[in-house]
Structure formats: C-alpha cells, structure tokens
Amino acid sequence: MDSLPITDDFLHAETLTEKAYRALEEDIVTLRIPPGTVVSEAILSRRLGVGRTPVREALQRLAREWLVVIMPRRGIVVSAIDPVRQLRVLEARREIERFLSRSAAKRATKFQRTQFREIAAGMDEAAPLADDIAFMRLDRAFNLLVLDSAGNEFAASAMTLMNGLSRRFWYLHYRQVGDLPLAARLHATVARAIADGDQVAAGRSSDALVDYIEAFARAAIG
Known about the structure:
CATH superfamily of the largest domain: GntR ligand-binding domain-like
Strand order of the largest sheet: 1-3-2
CATH class of the largest domain: Mainly Alpha
Structural class: mainly alpha
Number of strands: 3
Number of helices: 9
Radius of gyration: 17 Å
CATH topology of the largest domain: Four Helix Bundle (Hemerythrin (Met), subunit A)
Helix content: over 70%
CATH architecture of the largest domain: Up-down Bundle
Strand content: under 5%
Distance between the termini: 30 Å
C-alpha cells in the first residue's frame, strides 16, 4: 500500500503529527487501508518514517472523526462504512456546509480568495481527466480552506467530523454511481463564488453540491 509521502512540503509548517494524520487520513479515505484493517502504532510508525507519538496522536484524531476505532488492549481497527450513518451525515451537512460557504465568502482574506481560485482551477483540470487522487487532494484542501476562512470554530468542528466519512464513502462508490467530472465542477463553482465574495451564490452552489452528494449516496445505497 503506497501512502502520501511523509516528507511532503505542501504545508512546510506542519508538525509531524499533522503530517502523519494527513498521510493516514488519505490512505483510509482512498481505501489503501480498507475498512476492517487492524493497524498498530509500530507498523504505521515504520511505514511513515516517524516516531510512535505523532502516529498515536494522529490515530486519536482519526478516532474522533470516526475513521478508526481504538479498542483498549485489543487494537486499532479502521471503521466500517455505514450507509445509514452516511445519510445522517448528509442531514447535518447541508445546513452546516451552506453556512460555512456563505461565511467564507464574507470573511475570506485576499490570500484565501486567491487560494480558492487556484483550487477551482485545479478542479477544472482534474474534471476531464477523471483524476481521482488529484480530486481527493483538492477536495481536502478545499474543505480545510473553507473551515479556516469561515471564521467559526464551532461550525468548523462539526464539519470536521463529517468530511473524512463523506470523502471515503464517495471514493468507495464513485466508479459505480458517481460522476467525478460533475463533482469537480460543482466544487469549482463553490470555490469561485467564495473567491468572488458572493454569499448568495456561495450558498446556492453549496446546496447544488450537496444535492449531488445526496443523490449519489442514495444511488450507492439503493
């Protein structure tokens, strides 16, 4: 199983814990580490080339996001994909994501707006190529940028608990019932609305994105 290199310089100020978390989160979300896999701090430490403490802290964060289950004295297991839980995620996600998108459009800095435009351009490039890994990385960067620019730590905390589960569910099923180019274009539309500071368009495009995600989830389940 190949993982995101722990030496990645995308965010040069990352701590070892943040790098370990980012690598493991991508491996779990893209199913390189499948549901039900038993993992250990020692094995992951060797795999990522970092100490056990950063790995332990990364796993604790992943447990809070429902991606792993830590069982005292029994081990650590990558969580199962639960379709019913995914529908509950979507119930909450629509309202929170609309609020975050509108808030980001209102509060984003000039630099953050530039980053949103770069993400939109990246999504446009990934769409015709159906490049799933590029899309997943851009999607994660988009999610983090929305959380950071919206300026509301309580909404951000709630959304953080849903992002990984949603991305993993999409990755599992998108080849059967998904439309990666459409998903990329919908993300790009939200990103551009935020970059333009258009709160109404940001909310409307966020709803359109969640409409697609909900239709996708129901098709995957049904």
